[in-house]
Each structure stands twice: as structure tokens, then as C-alpha cells.
Design brief:
The complex is a heterodimer. By secondary structure, chain A is mainly α. Chain A has helices at 2-21, 30-35, 48-60, 66-81, 84-99, 102-116, 120-129. Helix content of chain B is 73%, strand content 0%. Chain B starts with a helix and ends with a helix. At the A-B interface, α1, α3, α4, α5 and α6 of A face α6, α7, α8 and α9 of B.
């Protein structure tokens, strides 16, 4: 009897802890739901570790400027659809970007803005015209 | 009745009881002797069914074994405390990491002026090479 009670208590606590760490859309706070609104329709199908990452972003949200908040809202949906491999690559690239000098960072941002103005066909032409990489085959 | 029988005496208390019993043994009448005999049988029966006797039984493993070890439930309390500690440390640990003031890398990437797509866009890399050649 005591063991059954003990097992039920443990199961209950485990379920509580899991629900607290991996909440469904309905269990999120109003503030979190507002931030994560772009993911509302697919939230319940996200994996627990994806939800945790997104919740981290939501909890950081109040610390951001208005511009940063807008960027996060615009990029959140696309970000959640990337593969873990893609996201990890981007994190590494971001760290390299942050290691650049402020002047070089600014130059890259400017180049991106210029590039963003190009049409789809112009971008594709750039890729086609780019010189193929040289491979060292050891000859 | 059960609580009186199963209560453990210290060696000193037991020796004193034995001494008193020995001293007054000759003064006990026949009726009292029979009552004492019956009480002893009841006490032995209770002890035979106690968890301490079950302790020696084999084929009890894992968590169940740990829960049965102590007649006073000390191990049960320890096991329960350990499980609760594990569950709550997982919960509050992640809460603490979330609220420790540092901003998550993903947040920084998303809030950055350079969007995440810029790092993976091959055409943008080609554009960078193109502009660097100009």
C-alpha cells in the first residue's frame, strides 16, 4: 500500500516536472504566447527540446530593443523550421561574425543590404558566375 | 499491543527486566504464568511476520529491495527524497539556467542585424566574393 502510494507520488511529480518543462500551447503564459505567436499553429507538434529553445527566446524577449523584437518575430517561424544541423552551423557562423572587427561587421551588414535589393535572377547569376573552388588533389 | 511488543529495548533495559523477572519468578502464580506464556507466543508470532524477518528472503531486487530493507521505513524515505530531488533539480535547474541573466545564443542570432539566412545563403557568399574582387 505504501509502495503504491509512493509510486503514484513519484509518477505525479515526474508528470508535473515534465509538463512544467515541456508545456503545451495552452499552458504557456500570455506573454510567451504573444512572443511565440508565429509558432502557435505548430507549437504542439514541436519536439520538447525545440520548445525549450523557443521558450528561452521568449524569456529573453523583454530584454530586447523594439527593433530586435521585430526581427525576432519576423525570423522565428523560419528559424523553427530549420534542421538542428542548419541552426548549429548558423550559430558557429554567428560566433565568427561577432569575432570580426566592428568595421568589418558593418561592412558585411551593408553588403547584405545591397544583396537583398537584387532580384532572384540576379542572385542566381552571381552564383553561376562565381569561380569554382580549387581543390588540392595532391598532384 | 503490537507497538508494545515490537518496541526495542536497550541492552540495559533488557538486563533490568530480566533481573526483575528472575527475582520475582518464584512469586508468580500459575494463572499469571499461563498469561505470560500466551503473551510470549503472540510476541513471537508478531516478530515472525515483521519486515526484519522478511529481510533475509532472497529474490528481491532493485527499488523493491531498497524499499523493503528497513522495518522503520528509513530507506523508503531516502529513496523518495532522492527521486524528489532528481525531479525537482531537473525542473528548477532549467528554470535557473533560463533566468540567470545571460541571453541565449539563438536569441542573439535572431535579433542580429544580419539575419540567419545570410550565413547559409550560397548566393550571398558568391556576392561577397564578387564585391571583394571589385
Amino acid at each position: 500500500m505504501v509502495r503504491t502510494y509512493l509510486a503514484l507520488v513519484i509518477l505525479g511529480l515526474s508528470a508535473f516536472a515534465q509538463a512544467a518543462n515541456d508545456p503545451g500551447w495552452a499552458q504557456l503564459s500570455e506573454a510567451d504566447r504573444q512572443v511565440l505567436a508565429p509558432l502557435g499553429s505548430e507549437w504542439d507538434s514541436l519536439r520538447p527540446w525545440q520548445r525549450e529553445k523557443m521558450l528561452n527566446i521568449a524569456h529573453d524577449y523583454p530584454k530586447m530593443t523594439t527593433e530586435q523584437k521585430q526581427r525576432v518575430q519576423q525570423r522565428l517561424e523560419n528559424w523553427s523550421r530549420m534542421t538542428p544541423y542548419e541552426r548549429e552551423n548558423i550559430r558557429k557562423e554567428y560566433q565568427q561574425f561577432k569575432a570580426l572587427s566592428p568595421a568589418r561587421q558593418e561592412a558585411l551588414r551593408h553588403t547584405w543590404q545591397e544583396y537583398s535589393k537584387l532580384s532572384e535572377s540576379e542572385r542566381h547569376k552571381l552564383l553561376m558566375d562565381a569561380e569554382p573552388p580549387e581543390y588540392d588533389l595532391g598532384n | 499491543m503490537k507497538s508494545h511488543v515490537t518496541k526495542e529495548l536497550t541492552p540495559q533495559q533488557l538486563a533490568k527486566v530480566l533481573q526483575l523477572l528472575d527475582d520475582s519468578l518464584k512469586q508468580i502464580d500459575h494463572k499469571t504464568l499461563r498469561e505470560l506464556e500466551q503473551s510470549r507466543k503472540q510476541a513471537v508470532a508478531v516478530l515472525e511476520n515483521s519486515p526484519r524477518v522478511a529481510e533475509s528472503q532472497p529474490a528481491v531486487t532493485g527499488l523493491r529491495y531498497a524499499l523493503q530493507l528497513s522495518p522503520h521505513g528509513n530507506y523508503r524515505r531516502w529513496v523518495m527524497a532522492l527521486v524528489m530531488l532528481t525531479v525537482f533539480s531537473g525542473f528548477f535547474g532549467s528554470k535557473f539556467l533560463r533566468n540567470n541573466g545571460s541571453i541565449d545564443t539563438d536569441t542573439l542570432v535572431l535579433a542580429s542585424e544580419l539575419p540567419p539566412e545570410a550565413y547559409t545563403d550560397k548566393e550571398f557568399v558568391a556576392w561577397l566574393e564578387h564585391t571583394s574582387r571589385l
